[in-house]
Fold:
Amino acid sequence: MKRRKQSFLTLGILVVAILIFYFNGTKQIYGNDEASIVKVINSIEGYEDKSIEILEIKDFDEQRIAAFLANNRPGCIEFTEDKKGNYIWRYIEVNENEEFSFFQISPRKMIFVTNNENEIAKMQVDINGQKFEQEFIPNKATVTWAELPQTDNKEYIFRNYKYFDKDGIIIKKFE
Structure:
């Protein structure tokens, strides 16, 4: 009889422990929609208390890219799709103290993210000797997707950056 009580007690403790672990265990947060992407970003160390504004979400095969502002600073987060169709984050970047940022999301794709403080209306840069030009809407939070020129070796060399304001005046230049 004593042994039977001990077995029930052990079984009861085991069931309670399993239930506690199941309901309170760490649960994966996926980037399956805008609200869950905000939760993912706020769950990452260093981003817990940041105000997040999702600007745009785009899918490429099994990759999801979300452009956002974190405390009004440009950022980008990448997710990969698992076998169940859920998006798991793999990379995040926010450029502090900037109004205009770009992120290379694949060998030929770039994303430009601006906030409402951005004054850049156009950018020119030489990529592997070819002039690349992109226009932007100043003083507005925007996302611009761009495809880089084709290259034989998938290597890109960027030179001679020029940034122009809405009147066409150079405001920054890097050679």
